[in-house]
Amino acid sequence: MSDQTVYLNGVYLPLQDAKISVLDRGFLFGDGVYEVIPVYSGHIFRINEHLTRLDNSLKAIRLENPHTTAEWLAIFEPFLDSSKEQYFYVQITRGAASKRDHAFPEQVQPTVFVMCSDIKPFEGKVSGVKAVTLDDTRWELCQIKAITLLANILLRQEALDQGCAEAILIKQGYVTEGAASNVFIVIDGVLMTPLNNGAILPGITRDVILELAKRNNIPCSEQVIAMEALESASEIWVTSSTREIIPVIELDGKPVADGKPGALFKQMDALLQNEKKIS
Ligand code: PDD
Question: What is the tens place of the pLDDT at every residue in 85-111?
């Protein structure tokens, strides 16, 4: 299927012909949720985990899942291309009501949108990236993969404006996650990541890394991480479905350890590359 073909409400059509109403609640209120799902060689990675998280996001905003798993797979199927790495962007909003009103409308069809793009290799993956710590200004329901991303956008842009690739967010003195990623640190050989307690998005890549660590006897823990711990970390990573694991080599203008991607990053990245092939 052409790169420019998208799926909107039951129809595959060219991107430029995909139109929604200006009364769509996604447009007016950011009233919707989304998923980002990687595809390797035509195989959708951790599809059940992504669809479960989508279901959880929908439940949290009290929107019924418009499709069964089989229906979602049927929607995805025509986009799959075994010759490349791709990702699905899936968005569901509460649809277009007849007028703008904060209250949920009755009898409205949700808007379902799917597009598939190529994953472009992220150059910072090999060399590592700079990051900056910023105050986590987001709301308290960060486990919902909500399309309402204004705070995340402002935080990522602030990082970019400071010459950094990502913002590492701090809430009341503790690390939460990145503007569009989860965070891992290594201290004394132990891989640590903040708890999944509503202050973070439960990242699928995060879960895969924890699973790989356990399977390969790499000590790891989900725990509260104080901001000061970042200074004593020998490695810091940010993780997501589209960029996988990215080593942070400089934080707030200071090198992380020797300022080079660490040994555990290299080991975990190799494990992840293998996992992409086999699962
Ligand atoms: N974002 N935390 C936040 C706030 C995110 O936006 C993301 C990913 C993650 C990592 O989740 P996962 O490993 O499931 O991709 C954590 C996607 C890629 C995005 O918004 O484009």
Answer: 999 999 999 999 999 999 999 989 999
Q: Give residue-wise pLDDT tens across range 261-271.
A: 999 999 999 99
Output the pTM of the full model. Answer: 0.97
Q: What is the pLDDT of residues 156-210, one digit of tens each?
A: 999 999 999 999 999 999 999 999 999 999 999 999 999 999 999 999 999 999 9
- Tell me whether residue 214 is one of the annotated catalytic residues: no
Given 99, 130, 145, 254, the catalytic residue? 145
Distant-in-sequence contacts of 187-190, Cβ < 8 A, 24+ apart: 187/229, 187/232, 187/233, 187/234, 188/234, 189/219, 189/264, 190/219, 190/220, 190/221
Distance 106 CA to ligand 1 centre (A): 31
Q: Is 5-118's fold the same as 124-278's? A: no
CATH ID of 5-118, from 3.90.740.10, 3.40.50.2000, 3.30.470.10, 3.30.420.10 = 3.30.470.10
Pocket of ligand 1 (CB under 6 A): 36, 152, 177, 180-182, 201, 203-206, 239-242
Residue 59, helix vs strand vs coil: helix
CA nearest ligand 1 atom 5, residue: 180
Cα dist. 13→2, 24, 77 in Å?
10, 19, 15
Ligand 1 midpoint to CA 56 (Å): 15
CATH fold label, 124-278: D-amino Acid Aminotransferase; Chain A, domain 2 (3.20.10)
